[in-house]
Known about the structure:
The structure is a single chain. Helix 1 crosses helix 5 (about 70-80) and helix 7 packs across helix 13. The protein has helices spanning about 10-20, 25-35, 35-45, 55-70, 70-80, 115-120, 135-150, 160-170, 195-205, 220-230, 245-255, 275-280, 290-295, 320-325, 335-340, 345-360, 375-380; strands spanning about 85, 110, 125, 155, 175-180, 205-210, 235, 260, 285, 360-365, 370. By secondary structure, it is α/β, with parallel strands linked by helices. It folds into three domains: about 10-80, no CATH class; about 110-295, Rossmann fold (3-Layer(aba) Sandwich), CATH 3.40.50.450; about 310-380, Winged helix-like DNA-binding domain superfamily/Winged helix DNA-binding domain (Arc Repressor Mutant, subunit A), CATH 1.10.10.10. The strands form two sheets. The protein has a nine-stranded mixed beta sheet, sandwiched between helices.
Amino acid sequence: MTGAAGPDGGPLGRAFLARVLEPGDEVGGRWLREFGVEEVVRRLRDGGRPLPGVSGVRWSGLAARARAADPERDLETAGAAGVRFVCPGDTEWPAQLDDLGDARPTGLWVRGRPSLRMWALRSVAVVGARACTAYGAHVAATLASELAERGWVVVSGGAYGIDGAAHRGALAAQGATVAVLACGVDRPYPRGHAALIGRIAEQGLVVGELPPGDHPTPSRFILRNRVIAALTRGTVVVEAACRSGSLATGRAAQRLGRYTMGVPGPVTSALSAGVHELLRGEAVLVTDAAEVAELVGAIGELAPARRGPVLPRDLLEPAARSVLAALPGDRAASAEEAARGARTSRDEAIARLYELRALGYVERHGDGWKLTRQAMISVRQGRRPC
């Protein structure tokens, strides 16, 4: 926590607003932009004349929350749990969150030793379905592990399924990972991931918009996803059904001008249908960490070219390959027939046939030429020497 700027400004005022305003409240964000923290806090505490853009009912609800807010206690509770409160303008504040405009968090509660700003500079989100398949979990863990080995910070939501697999993959590689929660960072959710989130806090960072002790709701999960998207240089959706909340992260990344990537799955899998829908739009298909790094990394950080194995026929001269291709697979053929098939002269065909015999591709049968047993086996297996 940095120093307070008066009783209602700075961290204390923003901690108050974190308790009163819901994450992603763009009306509240506009108030902060137009009136400043101190004035918004004063008006909410006073509870009198409403700020513009809200109904009387909603203003009454906000005023009631303001009366119950105790930012000093929240900051004390956070400090006792090893949690710091990072505000816009602090040296640790990631500037890319400002791209959210009026939906920018009022502040972030951060648990863990590293600098959030520094880690966010080279980070990638890996998200997906909670009820994932074994394929999805394997891909997420492998992808996160490889990204971590390349020096990338893996960001996810700490949930079951793809999120948990991504965090575990990064941790297994002794890499950096950040969990962005939809609740207070002092009360990990889901409970079944308490040990995992504890490990993340020790080795990485646990981050959230909500003050200590606050609980998650369905809407808070969706709104949390915008922070994941804004914090990172790109988002990879590994596995997601058409109604998956993780798609909101990918779409938020697209709106923010971040890279949006998807890992394809079986076309028969409902859990990949949402990813495939993203890929039909502006998302980029990726299959491994090298392809992700090629998109989000520095110039020249290219994925290796995808090529099949180099087979013996690849090493033949074009003229020899043409003569070899001209020989039938079920019988011997004359040099004249090979020449016609290869569109070359008889003398050239004979020269190439002797070359192919020396390499073990063909053999003499009387006055004709025939593919060897080795070449025939390759043909039957769909691996004709090539």
